[in-house]
Model the fold of this input.
Amino acid sequence: MIVAIDGPSASGKSTAARNLAARLGLRFLDTGAMYRAVTWVALERGIDPADAAALEDLARSLEMSFDDRGLLFVLGKPVEAHIRGPRVTGAVSQVSAHGGVRMHVVARQRELAREWGGLVAEGRDTSTVVFPQADHKFFLWASAKERARRRAEEIGQPEAAERIAAELEARDRFDSTRAIAPLRQASDAVRIDSDGLLPDQVVDALERAIHEAGGAGQSGSRRSTAR
Done:
């Protein structure tokens, strides 16, 4: 079974997908981590985020794998501590917008799905581009205000919520208007509005929608909003 979850930055996709995978007994794939890894290695090697050709070469050759917990390794070494910082965050949108980068990363993501025999994947184009034939598709939504509040609490800076909201709105505009694989809700995805929901409640909504759709082998094709 393949479950694809899309949504804007900081909407809680990673937490929801990771916990849903655990409940369903599937592997978890953080597609965004792979673009962050390409970005981090590029910055470490002095590659300009605007250099499409060099970045495509890097994405083609970069060895990326995941452990059973869904943590990313590059060239056999753990990289989670390196790819989540502001330096990578500030450049990853530009790097991931290059078509050549996306082509090679998407190919690796599909390869992992075959190797693992199923997964729960999250990102911005998992249901529209990476796994358009996924058994279950979701679009996890939360307002910029709510996402900013969560992010500010997470970093222990509640006073930064307004600034973070502006940054998230700018990221949303970039991701939804880029020419290649823009962020959008698939026509056959179930929309989950997570404003006011606790993490476990979001996973409950996802799991309930899967069971109501008939479980494995059935498409989550109802155009509805779950709450």
